[in-house]
Amino acid sequence: xxxxxxxxxxxxxxxxxxxxxxxxxxxxxxxxxxxxxxxxxxxxxxxxxxxxxxxxxxxxxxxxxxxxxxxxxxxxxxxxxxxxxxxxxxxxxxxxxxxxxxxxxxxxxxxxxxxxxxxxxxxxxxxxxxxxxxxxxxxxxxxxxxxxxxxxxxxxxxxxxxxxxxxxxxxxxxxxxxxxxxxxxxxxxxxxxxxxxxxxxxxxxxxxxxxxxxxxxxxxxxxxxxxxxxxxxxxxxxxxxxxxxxxxxxxxxxxxxxxxxxxxxxxx
Length: 268
Ligand SMILES: NC(=O)c1ccc[n+]([C@@H]2O[C@H](COP(=O)([O-])OP(=O)(O)OC[C@H]3O[C@@H](n4cnc5c(N)ncnc54)[C@H](OP(=O)(O)O)[C@@H]3O)[C@@H](O)[C@H]2O)c1
Hints:
By secondary structure, this protein is of the alpha/beta class. It has 2 domains: 7-160, NAD(P)-binding Rossmann-like Domain (Rossmann fold, 3-Layer(aba) Sandwich); 173-266, ProC C-terminal domain-like (ProC C-terminal domain-like fold), CATH 1.10.3730.10. It has helices spanning 14-25, 42-51, 74-82, 100-106, 138-148, 162-171, 173-190, 195-215, 221-227, 234-242, 248-266; strands at 7-10, 33-36, 54-55, 64-67, 90-93, 111-116, 126-132, 152-156. Strands 3-2-1-4-5-6-7-8 form an 8-stranded mixed sheet, with helices on both faces. Helix 6 (162-171) crosses helix 11 (248-266). The longest helix is centred in the C-terminal third of the chain and has 21 residues, at 195-215. The protein is elongated, with a radius of gyration of 21 Å. The relative contact order is 0.10. The structure holds NADP nicotinamide-adenine-dinucleotide phosphate. NADP nicotinamide-adenine-dinucleotide phosphate binds at residues 10-16, 36-39, 68-71, 73, 77, 80, 94-96, 116-119, 171.
């Protein structure tokens, strides 16, 4: 009989597959990994065959279990997930809205890290906000840091409530940036540019600006903005509108407050 895996991934959909890819790229041995996924994609099947991690093997308790199913599947999946847990297991959940209390009511786990990644995780450029409940040991927290950093940066928060704010900023944030591309393109159309050209201009601008930020981690966004803003120039004319009292910052403050409120309502 195979020995117990060190690490179990339950749910190898979009986010689970991204995590798995990150672990393998980071050099975690496939022999230490077991993956549970009722409908594995062809990519996951081939990866299992190539690298040798166990796919849908018999459950046995493991020290670390990463839960990456859809939140609405939790009740149905709980009895199966429980078979992989022992009393001291570390449970890392990326389920949006499922609180530590909710998870510990449904699963035999008390050492729980709740994490909120975002979609750039798919290319290893995500950022994850994470909260560890007080029962998580320092070694388990280090393990969570190692596993979550397989898909990008990790930021720890000291209260579980802060996860709602993380959700509002970085969890939902990629959608705001995509909307910025759409809105910028609409501005171009309003100025008479063909729609497809406006979209290409807007898209490449957001892509390139993101890359500038990425390549200059020591330079603040404010400095990068000021670098392209000559006093009295064209950028300044637009920023005067965007930075007005009811401008972009006020709008995003309202939008992110709505997202955080919704995250709180969905928690359970
Ligand atoms: N995508 C994001 O940006 C993002 C960001 C932050 C957090 N999250 C969280 O990440 C989680 C996963 O999201 P996702 O976008 O990766 O969803 P997804 O692509 O639907 O992946 C979930 C996977 O779990 C599988 N699954 C369902 N029941 C299972 C069970 N009993 N045992 C094992 N696997 C099971 C599903 O299989 P079937 O398809 O066969 O049902 C599916 O492949 C969600 O809880 C979400 O809140 C996602």
